[in-house]
Amino acid sequence: MLIKNIFLGFIGFSSGIIIAGAFIALISMIGLIPRLISKTKTAKKIMLYENILTLGATYGNLVTIYKFPMPLGVFSLFLHGSFSGIFVGMLAGAIAETLNVIPIFSRRAKLRKGLPYILLSIGIGKTVGSLVQFYLLK
Amino acid sequence: MTNTIYLKISKSICTSNKIVTLKDMATIYCNDENIKNEVEQLNIYTFKSDSDSKIIISSLKLIELIEKAILNSQIVALGEIDTVIYYKKAKKENKLLTYIKIVLACLIAFFGSAYAIMTYNVDVSASELFLLLNKLILGKYPNGPTILEFSYSIGLSIGIFVFFNHFFTKKISREPSPLEVQMRLYEQDVNTAEVISSDRNKESIDVN
Question: Does the beta-carbon distance from B117 to A57 stay under 8 Å?
């Protein structure tokens, strides 16, 4: 039994490490956090951000695995909702950018102007789509 | 006798001085100290407006300026072909604003990465998989979380520490972390884009 438990622990530990690698590779290579840092001009605090990312991932993982109750009630919901919303919005933008979606589209459509409007529409579209999904498509 | 002047030109510089001299944007080597000093003090560009701005200067322009100043010289330009010069007014940093920005960025990073790992765990049904693994190895379905979940959680954090190359403030090795590398890459991309777009708009300073 002990051997089996050790084996189980070993599997868990190694899968955790591999998933962490993939997870952080995605988050940092996609250029989202570097952009956040350069926009806020706080490159000196890079270590702090890395620690925060680690803490965030650890926390999120513990929540999904152990499903422990969270304090602060509605305020906690607000924190999760708003900040993970911002994060996902940035992630969507970063992925679209990495895959060159917008340059390719505007080249194909021979668009030279109006890029800000296209971006604005994408942003509003995401909010509308999200609201429709959560409130109308119940 | 001709003197050879060697230039190593930087890719991008940031200055709070309106007058840009050659010394700001390149390292210079010349046999003759006097010529070296003279070349270093050459005025390359003067920013007119008070606001933050940028200009791109071609290495050909630098060569032209040096040739005008020092006759009979031979110039060897090494390094970058174009240099991006950012002018930023020297102003006192607003500490409070910086802290607010850091806190906001930290909140986004924290909840964002928590959200990302939660969606990942739910998306791949990590909990169900853990149940199956428990059954496979221990022979029965567990009542609650077992050593598997615990070690997975530990492994996750350790993996991130290893990837970022430090435990909180203690660096594991002296290499830059992936985020630092990405920051530099991003900076490079921005500079390259600046050079290309100013070339297209004919805004850069070049000969003729």
Answer: yes
